[in-house]
Design goal:
This protein has 216 residues and is α/β, with parallel strands linked by helices. It is built from eight helices and eight strands; from the N terminus they run E-H-E-H-H-H-E-H-E-H-E-E-E-H-E-H. Bound molecules: adenosine-5'-diphosphate (2 copies). The site of one adenosine-5'-diphosphate (ADP) has 21 residues, from helix 1, helix 2 and helix 3.
Length: 216
């Protein structure tokens, strides 16, 4: 049976960072809805242009196109063993749709690590984030700078600041998260799938707790 892990937590909590580390130490694919939208934007697809109009405002992209994009992605062969879902689901409708589509793959959501941090930390992290152009590798100007300024350690591509990582947009995204995504915390807690993790710890400590939760 395939394994599906849903990473939950506000913008800047460390979901992407942890997903990239976990994907290396498991056979699970890293599926990031935000990366998929940014890839579409880079390729100038209709979906990319539509997504950008919402992303720039710090709002969520509509459920129907987001759900379709994720269904297509987890249908690909590299997700045969399962996936680490980073940034999806983000609304109750997306969570219900995910459950339905995982039935088709004879799987279910197995674990939901919920990474948290106080708002001031989230803003400091997201607004200092640098993202690699080629593959979305994640850095921070203070907490995790690339070895050579402006260049990704892994693939040598340019690192840039996302348009939506400006302080005002980050604050808006946190509000949207509280309104639209917080209900999922309760939902997965009631289902007995939630593993709460203190995201203010060092990256390595957070990873350690994630791996411990996975082993259970
Ligand atoms: P999310 O995917 O939840 O928005 P990211 O993984 O992209 O979060 O992390 C947001 C920013 O915070 C990035 O710049 C990243 O380098 C940094 N970061 C992530 N985890 C930690 C941590 N445990 N301590 C310090 N900085 C971190
Ligand atoms: P972060 O890691 O900081 O939370 P993401 O890269 O996950 O940021 O998301 C960036 C933006 O992409 C969101 O603000 C939203 O506009 C869009 N997005 C990403 N995932 C979803 C989703 N599941 N549903 C709707 N919109 C999404």
């Amino acid at each position: 049976m395939p394994t599906y892990i849903v990473l939950l937590g506000p913008p800047g909590a460390g979901k992407g960072t942890q997903a990239q580390i976990l994907a290396k130490s498991t056979n699970l694919a890293h599926v990031s809805s935000g990366d998929l939208f940014r890839e579409n934007l880079k390729n100038q697809t209709e979906l990319g242009k539509l997504a950008k109009s919402f992303m720039d405002k710090g709002e969520l992209v509509p459920d129907d196109v987001t759900i379709k994009m994720i269904r297509d992605r987890i249908s690909r062969p590299d997700c045969e063993a399962g996936a680490i879902l980073d940034g999806f689901p983000r609304t109750p409708a997306q969570a219900t749709a995910l459950e339905r589509m995982l039935l088709d793959f004879k799987g279910e959501v197995n674990l939901v690590p919920y990474i948290t941090a106080a708002e001031n930390i989230l803003v400091e992290r997201a607004s200092g984030r640098w993202t690699c152009r080629a593959h979305g590798h994640i850095y921070h100007e203070k907490f995790n700078p690339p070895k050579q300024a402006g260049v990704c350690d892994v693939d040598g591509s340019e690192v840039y600041q996302r348009d939506d990582d400006k302080v005002e947009t980050v604050a808006k995204r946190i509000r949207v998260y509280l309104e639209q995504t917080m209900p999922l915390v309760d939902y997965y807690r009631k289902a007995g799938k939630l593993a709460e993790i203190d995201g203010t710890q060092a990256v390595e400590q957070v990873t350690k707790q994630m791996l411990a939760a996975l082993k259970k």
